[in-house]
């Protein structure tokens, strides 16, 4: 079994050590592995190189498509595990793309890393199979609102939103571009009874200036709605770059 990974700027697999930049574990030293392929297509996606390949006509605001061969690398799951272990971190963040599309191979990879803690970044549309689920310490679930460009039937599946609400390991992270996005986000929180101490608002943006501006008007909204606020720390530290 093998995994399809995104590539870094050298063309190698995007496996690296850094600080978690978002959500409940922000600031924590972790290893990252970024997988390729996604079942959604967010117009503002900052990792479009994981899915917006040549021939894909789904819209993206940058209007850029990527060569699939240059931006994907396929590795045996034992090889991926060895590279992760070499980073010397005790916690792993699996991101994408959409990691759940490769759940079976991920579970097999984690068999080679029995002692590592695991976070998975997911859009929340695919249920983790039992063999993977048992290894996960934290799910960072980012339901995609209307401004992402995805249809609600694809991105906001009621049964899955109920599923995450019932899992104490799941933290919701809503990407917010405009104050008007709050009504949709909080409507989902109320409808599916998500505990507000597991709900984060995060500004959309790929530059420090944009993030700081949006954080200023997001902060009072988070206070008003009784939910948490998260920055995108890695953007301030490293910019919008691969492998960070």
From TrEMBL:
It comes from the Bacteria. GO terms for biological process: tRNA queuosine(34) biosynthetic process. Its EC number is 4.3.99.3. Pfam families: Radical_SAM (PF04055). Substrate binds at residues 19-21, 34, 95. It is an enzyme of class 4 (lyase). [4Fe-4S] cluster binds at residues 38, 42, 45. Keywords: 4Fe-4S, Iron, Iron-sulfur, Lyase, Magnesium, Metal-binding, Queuosine biosynthesis, S-adenosyl-L-methionine. InterPro entries: 7-CO-7-deazaguanine_synth-like, Aldolase_TIM, rSAM, rSAM_sf. SUPFAM superfamilies: Radical SAM enzymes. The keyword Lyase applies. Mg(2+) binds at residue 47. The keyword DNA damage does not apply. HAMAP family: QueE. Catalyzes the complex heterocyclic radical-mediated conversion of 6-carboxy-5,6,7,8-tetrahydropterin (CPH4) to 7-carboxy-7-deazaguanine (CDG), a step common to the biosynthetic pathways of all 7-deazapurine-containing compounds. Homodimer. This is 7-carboxy-7-deazaguanine synthase. It comes from Croceicoccus naphthovorans. The gene is queE.
């Amino acid at each position: 079994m093998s995994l399809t990974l995104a590539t870094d700027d050298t063309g190698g697999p995007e496996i690296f050590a850094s600080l978690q930049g978002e959500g409940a574990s922000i600031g924590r030293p972790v290893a990252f592995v970024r997988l390729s392929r996604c079942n959604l297509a967010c117009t503002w996606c900052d990792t479009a190189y994981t899915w917006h390949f040549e021939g894909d006509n789904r819209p993206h605001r940058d209007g850029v498509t990527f060569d699939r061969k240059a931006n994907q690398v396929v590795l045996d799951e034992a090889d991926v595990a060895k590279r992760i272990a070499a980073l010397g971190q005790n916690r792993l963040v699996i991101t994408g793309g959409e990691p759940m599309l490769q759940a079976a191979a991920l579970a097999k990879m984690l068999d080679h890393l029995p002692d590592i803690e695991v976070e998975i970044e997911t859009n929340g549309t695919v249920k983790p199979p039992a063999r993977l689920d048992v290894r996960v310490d934290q799910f960072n679930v980012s339901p995609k609102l209307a401004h992402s460009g995805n249809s609600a039937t694809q991105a906001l599946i009621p049964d899955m939103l109920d599923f995450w609400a019932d899992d104490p390991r799941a933290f919701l992270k809503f990407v917010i571009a405009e104050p008007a996005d709050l009504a949709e986000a909080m409507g989902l929180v109320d409808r599916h009874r998500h505990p507000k101490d597991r709900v984060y608002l995060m500004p959309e943006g790929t530059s420090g200036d944009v993030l700081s501006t949006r954080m200023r008007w997001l902060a009072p909204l988070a206070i008003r709605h009784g939910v948490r606020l998260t920055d995108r720390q890695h953007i301030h530290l490293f910019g919008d770059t691969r492998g960070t």
